[in-house]
Amino acid sequence: MAQCVQSVQELIPDSFVPCVAALCSDEAERLTRLNHLSFAELLKPFSRLTSEVHMRDPNNQLHVIKNLKIAVSNIITQPPQPGAIRKLLNDVVSGSQPAEGLVANVITAGDYDLNISATTPWFESYRETFLQSMPASDHEFLNHYLACMLVASSSEAEPVEQFSKLSQEQHRIQHNSDYSYPKWFIPNTLKYYVLLHDVSAGDEQRAESIYEEMKQKYGTQGCYLLKINSRTSNRASDEQIPDPWSQYLQKNSIQNQESYEDGHCTITSNKNSDSNLLSLDGLDNEVKDGLPNNFRAHPLQLDPSGDPSNSIDGPDHVKSASSLHETKKANTGIIHGACLTLTDHDRIRQFIQEFTFRGLLPHIEKTIRQLNDQLISRKGLSRSLFSATKKWFSGSKVPEKSINELKNTSGLLYPPEAPELQIRKMADLCFLVQHYDLAYSCYHTAKKDFLNDQAMLYAAGALEMAAVSAFLQPGAPRPYPAHYMDTAIQTYRDICKNMVLAERCVLLSAEILKSQGKYSEAAALLIRLTSEDSDLRSALLLEQAAHCFINMKSPMVRKYAFHMILAGHRFSKAGQKKHALRCYCQAMQVYKGKGWSLAEDHINFTIGRQSYTLRQLDNAVSAFRHILINESKQSAAQQGAFLREYLYVYKNVSQLSPDGPLPQLPLPYINSSATRVFFGHDRRPADGEKQAATHISLDQEYDSESSQQWRELEEQVVAVVNKGVIPSNFHPTQYCLNSYSDNSRFPLAVVEEPITVEVAFRNPLKVPLLLTDLSLLWKFQPKDFSGKDNEEVKELVTDEPEKIGTEVISEFVINSEESKVARLKLFPHHIGELHILGVVYNLGTIQGSMAVDGIGALPGCHTGKHFLSMSVRGRQDLEIQGPRLNNTKEEKTSIKYGPDRRLDPIITEEMPLLEVFFIHFPTGLLCGEIRKAYVEFVNVSKCPLTGLKVVSKRPEFFTFGGNTAVLTPLSPSASENCSAYKTVVTDSTSVCTALISSASSVDFGIGIGSQPEVIPVPLPDTVLLPGASVQLPMWLRGPDEEGVHEINFLFYYESVKKQPKIRHRILRHTAVICTSRSLNVRATVCRSNSLEDEEGRGGNMLVFVDVENTNTIVSSASPCADFFYRSLSSELKKPQAQLSLHTEKQSVEDAVRLIQKCNEVDLNIVVLWKAYVVEDSKQLILEGQHHVILRTIGKEAFSYPQKQEPPEMELLKFFRPENTTVSSRPSVEQLSNLIKTSLHYPESFNHPFHQKSLCLVPVTLLLSNCSKADVDVIVDLRHKTTSPEALEIHGSFTWLGQTQYKLQLKSQEIHSLQLKACFVHTGVYNLGTPRVFAKLSDQVTVFETSQQNSMPALIIITNV
Description:
Elements: H1 8-15, E1 19-24, H2 26-33, H3 39-43, E2 53-56, E3 62-65, E4 71-74, H4 82-95, E5 105-109, E6 112-116, H5 121-132, E7 145-153, H6 159-175, E8 190-198, H7 204-218, E9 223-228, H8 246-252, H9 325-333, H10 342-394, H11 419-432, H12 436-453, H13 456-472, H14 482-495, H15 499-515, H16 519-528, H17 535-550, H18 557-573, H19 577-591, H20 597-613, H21 617-629, H22 636-656, E10 669-670, E11 676-679, E12 690-692, H23 704-721, E13 736-737, E14 748-750, E15 755-762, E16 769-782, E17 792-794, E18 804-806, E19 809-814, E20 819-828, E21 832-846, E22 861-863, E23 866-877, H24 889-893, E24 906-908, E25 914-919, E26 924-926, E27 929-939, E28 945-952, E29 958-959, H25 991-994, E30 1014-1016, E31 1023-1024, E32 1029-1037, E33 1043-1055, E34 1065-1076, E35 1079-1087, E36 1101-1109, H26 1120-1133, H27 1146-1157, E37 1160-1175, E38 1178-1192, E39 1197-1198, H28 1228-1231, E40 1235-1240, E41 1244-1247, E42 1255-1265, E43 1271-1276, H29 1284-1290, E44 1294-1296, E45 1300-1305, E46 1310-1319, E47 1323-1326, E48 1331-1336, E49 1343-1344, E50 1354-1359
Parallel strand pairs: 1-4, 1-7, 7-8, 8-9, 14-24, 26-34, 41-50
Antiparallel strand pairs: 2-3, 5-6, 10-15, 11-13, 11-15, 12-25, 15-20, 16-17, 16-19, 16-21, 18-20, 21-23, 21-24, 22-23, 25-27, 27-32, 27-38, 28-30, 28-31, 28-33, 29-32, 33-34, 35-36, 35-39, 37-38, 40-42, 42-46, 43-45, 43-48, 44-46, 47-50, 48-49
Helix pairs in contact: 4-5, 10-11, 11-12, 12-13, 13-14, 14-15, 15-16, 16-17, 17-18, 18-19, 19-20, 20-21, 21-22
């Protein structure tokens, strides 16, 4: 249970206090009415004694009573009606709400942090009112009148006679059988005579004399002179006196609360506003002349003109009529006790003290003694006889029967003088004066008697008070008997069917259990009494049970939340909308964000409805919004109901402020980061053979690798335009901005070119959404040339579309759980700064077959092709979070995000706009095939363009023709029978010169330092005027590798008029070409032995070319020199393998480089070919060319890269390298080419062996130094035979003369040695036996050349 202002030790004694009746004469009532108070109300703030009181118990022991309080009330002869009590309780609860700005307790339980109201003042008010308004019953005497104050005024003609009348009146009410109400404690009721004296108007002498007469007649302890009204009411405003009555009157008066002010209740006005206060004390505020006050109806009696059902628990309780504003105004204007001074306050306080000390307590003490004596005497006589009879017939002990076995005798009534009731009376009297020990023993005795008699109502009452007495006993001699309470509750509820008494038991027992920390038992007790008969009681008890769960040592958070939900539901049924809303909101803290989506939906839906009922429309919209924005697991029908409810509430809110700003709508979801912005026109579709450049569109997926390639291409062309340097302020052109692009700068858009914003919507619901009149929301700041800025906020497009034209999508349907993008366009007509804020639309549902539930669904209205059940206008903002900053230390240690400006374009002045079309562009080619296509350039803007260039990573793929190229055919049709090559016919005399081409590498940008990839497009006059178009031929050559190739073209162009913000524009095109295998060309070069070239340098080569036709399918053709030089340029770009030499001597490095040069050759072979292909029963002649680049002597080269076989996997070896220096020794192949050798000799030699046995043949050995360094050469003529077979094959001959020569050859020197070979037989001989060793002059190592091994030098010796 929640914390209370009073402890249970204070609560119980205050709930059960001695009751005193008040019977006033009309004149006395008039005196008190001058203060707007009845006599009973006058005494109420002073009814608690300020000092301890003493009395003696029957054993003559002194007993101390602390904080004794008495309850004085006017006599009411009609019992209150249950319906009126329920109404009073309902009003008390609705009137007590949490204080504004109250700081709630924060309870941390596990991972929950809950803001919970620690106190529940509405429950305490309810409990206090409930206990005070309990009607007196016959089975207990706690709220029976013990005494009666008879009040008369000193201003009356015969006050003593008036006292006699009042005394007779009291006697008649108590003892006449016509009056069953009120109840009196004992027949001999204490009468206390009070003489009221108005100090300001009355005669004090007379009052004193009357009082003396009273003392003589009634005794000094039975009467009192009370002086009041020491000042007149017209002086009341002069001095501010405290008003101690207001707090009591507010609690006890029925005042309709603010929750009823919203027009649901019928308001009736009374002439006298005071009559709207129904006091618990039962005195009507208006004194009715001629009607004895003792016959007045009970103030809790319902007005017959009110609700006939007398039920307050139903939802219609608010219809019970009572004035709202008049009552409030009247109450605020009334000053209670206006004629009383502080001295009068003290006099009233003293009067209560005197009455209690001298009148009430002695009376109670005397009554207790009398009852005790009666009980003792009866116990000695009848009880002893009775018990003996019982023992005789039934044994010594009566077995206790369980409550369920006892028959229903709740209707049993004892006569007033029954001894059982006397025990109960004594117990109640002891309890009222806080003598709990004696009270407990009496209750215990009475309980046994009642159970023996099976008088269950009496037994339950005795059990209840016995338990409370046991708990309140000083020193706690025995534990609290909770089972007594349980039995009492069960009896009241199940047997006696008296829920009021059962509720009192539960309220008291729960407080006791709470004080002992037994929250679990208290919660179970509170929950037990929840039932269908009273929603208000059930709601309050469930709420207290929830507080029990949260206040346990280990808080049970989910049980707390569940019972708060149940309490909220019952509050709602009881018409307590504010309390219901509060309970649901408290429980929401537990369920929120824990994945209990269905529970969250239920709570939010209820909060929404309750808030709507209370006209808290913003809260209602917020709650319904939560239902829609969470990932709902509800069925489609339920989601549809939620949505319609939201739309209905939202429509009501918007109608309150139709001119207010458009609120944010929760549906559909917008993925702001996925928003894409595209600047420019949509791409034109292909038209026959005419294909538009692909450029950029929103249909293309982002590819980081491709994006980087385009950036590099643009940087290349910008560098060429700016003489090799990229400007510092250069930024790559971005036509499409997305979450991957660099959005840190304001993008640039061109006036009159559309801006397309792609917004990614997602419908999380299972019902379709219909958005109508969907458009972008923007703010535009025009910039004019005078420099003045004027900001113009445009939220709708209907007023001034001349600044920014806005496209409106009339209908946009998003099906259930669908993600869908909407492309919305803006058309800027003015330069300036544009800020795209969000989207604006009407949100509605499509009316389908589902029944429209919820509150107030509108009839369907037809829009377009869908039926729209209801729609509301709203907006959603596009808020894009920029990238996380992670550069500086500060940014790394904190979370900071950069700007994302993709929605804030700057509109610049007009720029040219190029469109490119490709005509007859092939999709398939053979490798190396040459094909002709046409490119059309169109300027679709109002500005001329210039500086048109195209750049590609594959310049070898296409060409517009070189500067020296011949004229090409003008149209595609005229080129059908034209070859890509020109055949040159030459005569035999000019073979050498005819084979030299007129084209050179300079024509194609090779070797002059520029970028060969950047190709200027040869426009006529270099300018393309607005609306003009130019068609140029383009030659294409199929890439050497088969497969699918993506080739990127980037067209660059500028405006004739230089713009400060946009210096150039680009257009992209990606061509996809599929190439098929055609020819495989392999070539090898080696040195020729011939030395007869023009320069005598030994530069002749032998070239071996193998051509293999590998074609299997049909495919493509272009000019020879262009493609050769373009492919050459791409080869030159490839990184060459560099030999890194790390030696100590620079000379060694130089020597090796010299040796390497001897091995290199610069030879390029172009192979032209024609292919005869039959396609679609037509014979086609396809042309093409292949290039083979030879760089190394003796090494085979190919026309296309060879696929390398992956090396076999080897085991990993660990070793320590002994020598880390890199060897600078050249390879054997390189060294063997230092010296070129050539033998000159006759092919056949005739010799007469019969004349001369020795045949001598002159042989010349030519030695050529191929390097540019001095070379030492050793020629060794001695035979080096590896095997006997070699002698047999080549035969044996001998060199005559010197067997070894040592020579030094200068750079590229040729030296000849004259040798003689001696033969003794005829035959075929190999003269290639001389071994030549060479070394660089400054090196030590000698290497043998391998030139003689390349080809045998055969000579035939014949005999003549």
